[in-house]
Every structure is written in structure tokens, then in C-alpha cells.
Amino acid sequence: MSERVTISVQDHIADVRFNRPDKMNALDAEQIDAIVEAGEKLAAMEGIRAIVLSGEGKAFCAGLDMGAFAASAAAASEAEQDGGKSPLASTLTERTFGNANKYQHIVLLWRKLKAPVIAAIHGPCIGGGLQFASAADIRVVAPDAKMSIMEMRWGLIPDMGSFTTWRNFVRDDILRELTYTNRIFTGEEGKELGFVTHLSENPHAKAMEIAREIASKHPQAVQIAKDLINHLPDMNEDEILMMESVGQDKVSRTPNQVEAVMAFMQKRTANFTD
Q1: Sequence ranges of the chain with CATH classification 1.10.12.10
Q2: Domain 5-215 is found in CATH 3.40.30.10
Q3: Are 24 and 63 in contact (CB under 8 A)?
Q4: Rounded CA gap, 115 and 137, in Å?
Q5: What are residue 18's DSSP bridge partners?
Q6: Domain 219-265 classified CATH 1.10.12.10?
Q7: Is the full-model pTM beyond 0.90?
Q8: What is the pLDDT of residue 87?
Q9: What is the largest CA-CA distance in the chain?
């Protein structure tokens, strides 16, 4: 796997880090490919109960690498002038990953992973970086982190799938203001705006603490609960009630569910199977 994204696993927890610190983990083509590869590797791994996503160096992710973007645009223009096909000619409306394009997929894959994802955010978390963070189940953020829906600065709109997540936890008028103005806000303000679950001076340590707590629970019950929560915005009452019942039938009276009860009664650590 590319060294642009690293994965280490211990005690059922995957510690995943964007690893381009010299560019504040900004997104170029190679970084995007590395993130897709990391997500697909995690989806195929057995025994992962929680995932902590963070960035090496001084930033979580500073968004699009504008230098790389400008170079790609220049190369595309030169190719067109020479009578060739521009590498940027393909349309974003092409669904290359299920119902999404590649740029939507690299964000939404974190929401679709079976195990809960906790984003540990420090420094700049801007543009695409905020969209990655928004796909996490839980966001632990340094009070002085710098966050922004930055795309409007570049004459673009947020298009990495995050409107599907923001609709769940950001108030409509707040989302509009931050999108239209691309203003930067701190982690502390982000808590008030709905983007932040917990504030911490050491986001990675706090995220690992939460991950350890999640990893100590019945793994299939956690996965089914995550899937149910993911589907809530798109279901009516009847569908929600049925999905609850189907999920409960899958986990109740199983060896892991019995173990959860016995471990609590005996005041010991549960020993679950994945």
C-alpha cells in the first residue's frame, strides 16, 4: 500500500493516518488514490471494530492541492491544443463507484465502512479535509483547529458527497452561510455549529480512548447499529421499525450477546468473537 496513507492495527483498532505532512496532507491524484486503496483495504480486513482517522504533521487535511490542480489543468490545456484528449475530459456525472464518482467515493467510503470511524482533527481541516471529517461517525477536534467549507473560494461547490452527511447534523441556515462565504471557523466554534462531537487538546488520544470503548462492545451489534443510523435519513417510520427488528433478531441470543450480559454481571472484560 502507498505510504501516503498508513494503517496500523492493535486490539481491533485501526489507526489510519494521512501521511503527506510536507503538504499538510493536501489532496493530489496520488493522495486520492492512496485514500481509496486504504479504504478498500480496511473494508476487506477482518476483526476491525473501530477506526481512528488523523493526519500526520501540522494538519488533518488542507483540502485540494492547488499547485497539483493547476499543473493538471495546464497539462489538459496543452493536450487539447495538440489535438489530443484532455485527461480532464471525463465528466463528474459518470458513476464509477456505485452511485458515486471517484471524488465522492473517497469520502463516503469512510461512512460505509462497517466499523465506526472517529476523526481526530488538528490544524487545518479545510475543503476536502472537512468533507472527510464529516463522513466520520464521531469528530474529536482541537479547539484551535481551522475548519472551512472552502470550495467557494476557488469558484467551486462542495462535491465530495458531503451534502449527504451535512444534511444530518448541520442546521440549514448555518450550512448555507458557511458554503456561500467559505469563512474559516475554529474547532471551538465548530462545536457550536454542529461539526464537532468533542473538543480536546489531544484529539488523537481522545479518539483512541473512544475507539477502545467501542472496540470493547459486541462487534456485530455496533455494526448493525451503525448501518441503521446511516439509513435513518432515507427511511420512513415503518422501515425504521422493521430495520430495528431485523437487526435485533440478528444479535439477540447469540453467543456474543450472552457474553455481553455475562461479562457485565461478572464484572469482567467481555471476550467477543468477530
Answers
A1: 219-265
A2: no
A3: no
A4: 9
A5: 5, 55
A6: yes
A7: yes
A8: 52
A9: 75
